[in-house]
């Protein structure tokens, strides 16, 4: 419900407002940017590591009863909630087979027996057993490590059951999350509690946010049936809440510090070198990029009083891991169990390996069960994947905020389009200058022509002056409309058909055919060689000179015939020239649109009127 009240993606800028150069937390001497850099370096090796045969199998009891309340209130029936457990032992690689490992002398051993001995078998996989518990000492466990050895436990290939959107939600998951957050109500009121309480909250919130990131990143698009990132969902669950994003980074720092801390003792362990030689080198290359300053665990529980707080912290976190047994969706339960076990292991390493005695440290690491180690590295991988996804989502988010003009700008910049456009602008402006010169010549010609007309026809001086002024204005605009925008010469006049200044326009502008002696105009133009000079001037078809009224009325059939033929010719000419003009018109339209976009981008009004000012160039005679 709270999510429904969230602002829409476009209304929020929280994602961008995060200061990535600030520290991840008061107990972390590392910035968000530094963690991004570390993650970038280790991502590949970490991924290979968790796909290795040692780290990809996890064992858990999927059918354990919820210890806190009756869980008969529902199951997740989606296919996506299901976990594919390993039932067919034969499908495992050869080196996992009992006979290869020498774990079972008798090949006829029953499948059940094999399952029972699975733990022993897995222990034999490595040079050193991770399952030795040693004698009972003080409780240093943050999760129930006995869980893995349960009769009903199943072996799961984590890579075959990715953590992603399952559709699990509603009251059931809400109940789980509120129980998890309720564990954060520490009863003690002592110094340091606020830091511990804060750390506890950040751990569970970071887990919650990391799960939210994965289900948004690997989300089922019900329309296309494809899995992929869903930015809108991510923003609703995580992206709009910088504190949630920060908590993922905090968890990353906590787990990374735990790995850094056990690094010297890991070298003592034989990680299945016989089967996967790279495992050790992959661990080294991941952990060697981590730094002790990434998280300072000493700030949390540093004196005797706080040891009580630590006990409280430990038992509360253990409860969180147990709450995972109440999750109805198996796939969610699997990953909830893996990750809470991973955090529990990190906390054990951080808060219990505090002795100065190297042997004690080594013993604690040696006592880590194989499943704790698997959970630890897989939890680190989950956080690493979350951080990678957050960075991808941020790119998607920024892209979604780009306006259309920004996109064009980015495109132009990326393709060095400005250079091209400026070159185009130069050639355009020079061609326009040429055209302007031609137009000025035309203006002179027209003026001379006008005076000729005045002389020859002794017409009203004023009306001819008007005609000339109109022509001048039209020609003047052609020159003045060359605008310089941001160093790019784009002429609006290019979008105006200035070829319009034709003999026909002279005729039209010069009032009626009666007043302007068309023959004289043509004669003058011919004398001046105008047709050579004004190559781009489209000459209208010669008008049919109507000689006298009698001929017209006397032969109306032939008149109609001539008109129809004229119309057909005109139509054919129109079709033909349309094809010829098509490429040029497309180019002009593109330039026109670009100019409009540019004008709106730089915030100036559009100079070009969308309405075509010209009269149609072709007119059919309808009688
Ligand atoms: C252990 C566990 C594992 C799960 N794994 C998966 C999975 O793999 N795939 C899958 O699709 N679903 C999974 N879910 C379900 C998923 O976490 C959500 O509960 C579900 O998608 C419904 O989401 P929601 O928007 O209703 O709010 P929820 O995520 O259920 O959150 C409830 C309330 O908690 C608050 N909140 C949300 N996130 C945070 C945060 N990071 N920090 C602090 N407060 C927060 C908000 O106020 C929110 O309204 C899992 C649930 C659990 C309990």
From TrEMBL:
Q: Which cofactor does it need?
A: FAD
For membrane topology, the record states: Peripheral membrane protein
Main localization is: endoplasmic reticulum
User: Where's it found, cell-wise?
Assistant: Endoplasmic reticulum membrane
Q: Where does FAD bind?
A: 164, 166, 177, 205, 208, 237
Active-site residues, Swiss-Prot/TrEMBL? 329, 332
One Pfam family in the UniProt entry = ERO1
Which SUPFAM superfamilies does the UniProt record give? ERO1-like
Looking at the keywords, is Nucleotidyltransferase present? no
BP GO annotations: protein folding in endoplasmic reticulum
One cellular-component annotation, GO: endoplasmic reticulum membrane
Query: What keywords are annotated for this sequence in UniProt?
Result: Disulfide bond, Electron transport, Endoplasmic reticulum, FAD, Flavoprotein, Glycoprotein, Membrane, Oxidoreductase, Redox-active center, Signal, Transport
Disulfide linkage: 76-81, 119-143, 126-272, 329-332
GO MF annotation terms: FAD binding; protein-disulfide reductase activity; thiol oxidase activity
> Quaternary form?
May function both as a monomer and a homodimer.
Q: Which family does it belong to?
A: Belongs to the EROs family.
Q: What is this protein called?
A: LALA0S01e00870g1_1
The organism of origin for this protein: Lachancea lanzarotensis
Q: Source organism lineage?
A: Eukaryota, Fungi, Dikarya, Ascomycota, Saccharomycotina
């Amino acid at each position: 419900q709270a999510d429904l009240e969230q602002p829409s993606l476009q209304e929020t800028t929280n994602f961008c407002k995060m200061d990535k150069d600030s520290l991840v937390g008061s107990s972390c001497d590392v910035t968000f940017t530094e963690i991004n850099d570390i993650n970038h370096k280790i991502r590949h090796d970490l991924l290979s590591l968790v796909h290795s045969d040692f780290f990809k199998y996890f064992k858990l009891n999927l059918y354990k009863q919820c210890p806190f309340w009756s869980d008969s209130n529902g199951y997740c029936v989606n296919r996506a909630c299901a976990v594919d457990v390993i039932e067919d032992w034969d499908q495992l690689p050869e080196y996992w087979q009992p006979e290869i490992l020498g774990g079972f002398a008798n090949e006829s051993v029953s499948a059940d027996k094999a399952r029972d001995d699975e733990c022993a078998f897995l222990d034999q996989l490595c040079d050193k057993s991770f399952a030795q518990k040693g004698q009972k000492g003080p409780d240093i466990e943050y999760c129930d490590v006995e869980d893995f050895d349960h009769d009903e436990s199943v072996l799961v290939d984590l890579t075959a059951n990715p953590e992603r959107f399952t559709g699990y939600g509603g009251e059931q998951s809400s109940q789980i999350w509120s129980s998890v957050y309720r564990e954060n109500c520490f009863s003690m009121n002592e110094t340091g509690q606020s830091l511990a309480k804060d750390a506890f909250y950040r751990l569970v919130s970071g887990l919650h946010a990391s799960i939210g990131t994965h289900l948004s990143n690997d989300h089922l698009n019900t329309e296309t049936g494809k899995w992929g990132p869903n930015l809108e969902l991510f923003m609703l669950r995580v992206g709009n809440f910088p504190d949630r994003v920060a908590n993922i980074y905090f968890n990353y720092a906590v787990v990374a510090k735990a790995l850094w801390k056990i690094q010297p003792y890991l070298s003592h362990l034989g990680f299945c070198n016989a089967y996967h030689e790279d495992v050790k080198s992959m661990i080294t290359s991941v952990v060697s990029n981590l730094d002790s300053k990434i998280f300072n665990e000493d700030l949390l529980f540093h004196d005797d009083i706080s040891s009580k707080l630590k006990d409280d912290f430990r038992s509360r976190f253990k409860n969180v891991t147990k709450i995972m047994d109440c999750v109805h969706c198996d796939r969610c339960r699997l990953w909830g169990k893996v990750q809470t076990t991973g955090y529990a292991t990190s906390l054990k390493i951080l808060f219990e390996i505090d002795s100065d005695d190297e042997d004690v440290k080594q013993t604690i690491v040696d006592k880590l069960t194989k499943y704790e180690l698997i959970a630890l590295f897989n939890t680190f991988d989950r956080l690493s994947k979350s951080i990678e996804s957050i960075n991808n989502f941020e790119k998607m988010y920024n892209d979604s905020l780009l306006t259309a003009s920004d996109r064009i700008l980015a495109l132009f910049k990326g393709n060095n389009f400005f250079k091209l456009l400026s070159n185009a602008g130069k050639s355009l402006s020079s061609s326009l200058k040429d055209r302007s010169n031609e137009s000025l010549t035309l203006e002179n010609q027209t003026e001379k022509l006008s005076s000729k007309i005045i002389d020859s026809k002794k017409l009203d001086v004023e009306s001819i002056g008007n005609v000339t002024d109109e022509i001048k204005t039209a020609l003047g605009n052609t020159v003045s409309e060359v605008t310089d925008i941001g160093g790019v010469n784009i002429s609006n006049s290019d979008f105006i058909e200035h070829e319009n200044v034709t003999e026909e326009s002279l005729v039209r502008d010069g009032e009626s055919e009666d007043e302007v002696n068309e023959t004289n105009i043509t004669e003058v133009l011919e004398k001046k060689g105008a047709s050579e000079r004004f190559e781009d001037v489209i000459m209208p078809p010669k008008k049919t000179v109507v000689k006298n009224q009698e001929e017209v009325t006397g032969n109306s059939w032939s008149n109609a015939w001539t008109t129809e033929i004229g119309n057909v010719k005109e139509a054919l000419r129109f079709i033909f020239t349309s094809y010829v003009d098509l490429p040029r018109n497309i180019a002009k339209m593109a330039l026109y649109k670009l100019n409009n976009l540019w004008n709106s981008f730089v915030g100036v009004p559009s100079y070009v009127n969308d309405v075509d000012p010209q009269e149609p160039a072709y007119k059919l005679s309808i009688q």
